[in-house]
Write a structure and sequence with these properties.
245 residues, alpha/beta, Alpha/beta knot, Trp Operon Repressor, Chain A, 2 domains, five-stranded parallel sheet, binds ligand 9D3
């Protein structure tokens, strides 16, 4: 997969992409991430990327020319026929795991990081295929949102996660995780649940499943509506709900 990220602050994204899992994926050749400085596509002495809004008002707007020229240049250099052009903006479709899986299938994506009060509307209408937001909170620009999208997508690419982890993820329900413990078995008088030390793998699996269900009921009951549960698990949840009330 090839990912180009167009930004006026490439420095914000250098760190996240040079560490950990994303770096390993890049080193393995699973993904190629290219930080593109929008100012490289200006032609004036001041390398101006923004301008005042027509009609007046507060703030600045990203100019169309550098963005069009950047995307066209990346398109021409792409081996892929039709890269997907995505604008990170508060008005976009909400990013979630479903969209991450969808984007992980794409050969080449070009992410544009919005800034200032916005982007010239002709960029949205004539250049961008899709607009994405990472949630209902206000960031100063699209760079951190792009980092979130890249992280969530790259870890899904074949060969990036350990095989067991990715199988576990695709075949289990979207429930919250059960509690994890490691050594020591007693720490400051806090004990690891004895079942985890029992060596009884059936009992352990059952305990973990019930813990997941209980946590999800407490913290994210909305997730239970979509989950594919066994009849006995539904009964267990109904019992928990009765105890709660
Ligand atoms: C104060 C300006 N706001 C007026 C309602 C609009 C606005 C424009 C640009 C608010 C934030 C931003 C910068 N944010 C992003 O570019 C952005 C973002 C976000 O703020 N939240 C969640 N996802 C994203 S993706 C890009």
């Amino acid at each position: 997969m090839k990912i180009d990220v167009i930004t006026i602050f490439p420095g914000i994204l250098e760190g996240p992409f040079k560490e950990s899992m994303i770096k390993r994926a890049a080193d393995q050749g699973v993904v190629e991430i290219n930080l593109v400085d929008l100012r490289d596509y200006t032609h004036d002495q001041h390398r101006q990327v923004d301008d005042y809004p027509y009609g007046g008002g507060y703030g600045m707007v990203l100019k169309p020319e550098p963005l069009f020229e950047a995307v066209e240049d990346l398109n021409n250099r792409s081996g892929s026929a039709n890269p997907r052009v995505i604008l990170l903006t508060p008005q976009g479709r909400r990013f979630d795991q479903h969209l991450a899986r969808e984007l992980a299938e794409i050969e080449h994506m070009i992410l544009i990081c919005g800034r200032y009060e916005g982007v010239d509307e002709r960029v949205r209408t004539a250049l961008v295929d899709e607009e994405i937001s990472i949630g209902d909170f206000v960031l100063t620009g699209g760079e951190l949102a792009a980092a979130v999208v890249v992280d969530a997508v790259v870890r899904l690419l074949p060969g990036v996660l350990a095989e067991e982890a990715s199988a576990d993820e695709s075949f289990t329900e979207p429930l919250l995780e059960y509690p994890h413990y490691t050594r020591p078995s007693v720490y400051r008088d806090m004990e690891v649940p004895p079942v985890l030390l029992s060596g009884n793998h059936g009992e352990i699996a059952r305990w973990r499943r019930r813990q997941s269900l209980q946590r999800t009921l407490e913290k994210r009951p909305d997730l239970l509506e979509k989950a594919d549960l066994l009849p006995e698990e539904r009964i267990y949840l109904e019992d928990l709900k009765k105890k709660q009330s």
